[in-house]
Amino acid sequence: MSDMAERMAQAWGHPVVIRRLPSALVALVASRRYGQGSYRPIKAMFDHYNTDGFVGSSNDLRTLLDRPPPTSTWRCVASPPTDPSQS
Length: 87
What we know:
Layout (H helix, E strand, L loop, with lengths): L1 H11 L10 H12 L4 H14 L1 E4 H8 L7 E4 L11
Antiparallel strand pairs: 1-2
């Protein structure tokens, strides 16, 4: 995530700050767009990302991009926080 922020900052010409938001807040905001029934699955998804990171197969990325990915595997978002209070 830090590398991505650095590249975005270079491209946009201004600093990009990464902030970890509580999964409950992210889920609340998203559920306003996607409906009240989406709160629990969205919160669970971000809790999982905060604990385990976000890892996927290059086949998943190929499907999303509709082209081959640049590497055989990918990892994004962030690795698990070192301090559980950050999630």
